[in-house]
Amino acid sequence: MSAPAGVRVDVEAAVRRLEELAAAWSAGEWTDGHAAELYRLAAPRSRMATWDLFEELARRIQGVEDAARTLLGGGR
Predict the structure, then answer these.
(1) How far apart are CA 66 and CA 60, in angstroms?
(2) Is 44 domain-assigned?
(3) Are 59 and 14 spatial neighbours (Cβ–Cβ below 8 Å)?
(4) Which of 1, 9, 16, 34 has the fewest CB atoms found within 10 Å of its own CB?
């Protein structure tokens, strides 16, 4: 599933920015500006674009979980 023609979302850039926003939250540096930006990232111009973003986030999370299992010797 991907965004319809004419709706472009740079998923890689959005994921990087979400990681930066998460770091700001963790560091206690959260501002109203961060909240507004998070809202804009989470509400692109189409539901399909939002789906693309969350699919990429899910892939990355699964990759981190797989790496942790491997490092801890649990395999998959």
Answers:
(1) 10
(2) yes
(3) no
(4) 1
Residue 18 to residue 48: CA distance in whole angstroms: 18
- Span 25-49, pLDDT tens digits: 888 898 888 888 877 776 656 666 6
Q: How many CB atoms lie within 10 A of CB 34?
A: 14
How many distinct structural domains can be found in the chain? Answer: 1
> Taking all residues of the chain, what is their mean pLDDT, rounded to a whole number?
75
Domain that holds residue 19: 11-71
* Integer angstrom CA distances of residue 24 from 28, 29, 30, 35, 53: 6, 5, 6, 11, 20
The answer to whether 55 touches 64, Cβ cutoff 8 Å, is no
The residue that leads in pLDDT, 17 or 46, is 17
Flag whether the pTM goes above 0.70. no
